[in-house]
Each structure stands twice: as C-alpha cells, then as structure tokens.
Amino acid sequence: MAIVVEHEKRRRDILRNALEVFMDEGFENVTIQKIAARAGITRTTLYTYFKNKKEIFNYSIKQLLSGVERQILEIRAAADLACVERITRVFHAILEKLEENRQLLNVILDYLRYISKNDGDPNQRVRRRTVRVRHIIASMVIEGVEAGEIAAVNIRTVDELLYSFLEAAIFRLTVLNRKSAGNLKQAVELAVERLRDAAPPPRA
Questions:
Q1: Rounded distance, CA 138 to CA 160, Å?
Q2: Residue at 18 is within a domain
Q3: How many domains, in total, are found in the chain?
Q4: Within its chain, how far is the Cα of 178 from the centroid?
Q5: What is the DSSP string of 153-175?
Q6: Cα gap 83→95, rounded to integer Å
C-alpha cells in the first residue's frame, strides 16, 4: 500500500524544525544535513522541497512572520476599538513577539551579516520583510486621521517615528543583549497619545 505524503504539512514541519536548528546553531553553522536530521528525513528528501539552507531560512522567517501578521491584522480589524487603541495594541503585540523571539533575532542578525559579506545588500532584505508591517502602521494612522481621532500629520513621518520604536527594540534585544525592550511600550503610548491630543476637537 502506497504511503500518502502530505507535502504542505511536511514542508511546514521542515521549516519549524529548521528554525529550531538555526536558533541552536546560528546561521553559518547550520548545514542541510543538520536540518534533515532534525526533521527526521534524508538530505535527498529535503532537497525536493528546498534548494539550499538560505532558502529554508527565508521561508522559516516568512512562516513565523505570517503568524505575527495575522495577529496584528486581527487587532486592526477590531471595530469596537478606537483607532489609537488599535495602533497601541498592535505595537504592544509586536514588541512582545520581539521579546519572545530574542534568540531568533540574533540569528537574523547573524544572517544579515552573512548576506553583507557574501551576496548583497542586507538593507534590501530587511525592507522586503518589513514592508507589510509598515503598510499596516501607515494605513492605521490614515484611518485615525480620517476618523478625526488623531491630528492631520505627514503619514510617512509618523510611520517612520512609530517604526523606529521597533528598530530600537531590536537593537536593545540583540546588540545590547537585553532581556526586554524596556519602556518602549510606554514610549509608543506617549507618542500615540500626543497624536490624539493634537487632533482638532469634534464639531458641535
């Protein structure tokens, strides 16, 4: 009797196991053989799904980020919350995810150094991975302006300001090796509150 292989499930399992190997070993020390062994398959089988470890790493990160994106889209869609509250909750959720995945952030930093040394511009890789989050932030700010909840502002400038809190968190968690992002949640709340305070009063 033939064995039916659920290819999409196996692919997800490979990525989940690969991410664990990357976190244990660091990007440069990981080999295809180590990933295959952790996933309980042969190297030949692994190569039917992915061509090299760089592709595996990129898809592993994409799979993780998809989960984060679903979470922030759920918050954004919460119609019972004011826009400023949704913005604040989205940032809280992202900051908590960064803290939970501190070890993974170091692996990503390791990977970006590898990219810089070997084949390209790491800045472009980062932009490609973060463009969706930045778009969600910008669209929520626009919604807040249109709803009269926050001041009419330059959307790009506010997007840059708010996104800089995430960059600061990553710097603290990786380069400074801190266990938490500190008081950045409160800093986000203060920034969003200032935007709300600057909004024109509702018309009578």
A1: 9
A2: no
A3: 1
A4: 18
A5: --HHHHHHHHHHHHHHHHHHHHT
A6: 18
Residues 129, 131: Cα–Cα separation, whole Å:
6
CATH number for position 64: 1.10.357.10
Considering only CA atoms, give the Rg of the chain.
Answer: 20
In a domain, 95, yes or no: yes
Q: What is the pLDDT of residues 14-50, one digit of tens each?
A: 988 998 999 888 888 999 999 999 999 999 999 999 9
Report CA-CA distances (Å) from 17 to 36, 41, 165.
9, 11, 31
Cα–Cα distances (Å) from 117 to 1, 111, 112, 146, in that order, read 50, 10, 9, 45
Global pTM reads 0.80
- 94 Cβ neighbours under 8 A, 6+ residues apart: 68, 72, 133, 166
Among all chains, which residue has been given the structure tokens 């604040």? 88
Of 11, 74, 91, 70, whose CA–CA distance to 45 is shortest?
11
Q: Are 49 and 14 in contact (CB under 8 A)?
A: yes
CA distance 144 to 42: 52
Q: How many CB atoms lie within 10 A of CB 112?
A: 16
Q: Look at residue 140 and tell me if it is in a domain.
A: yes
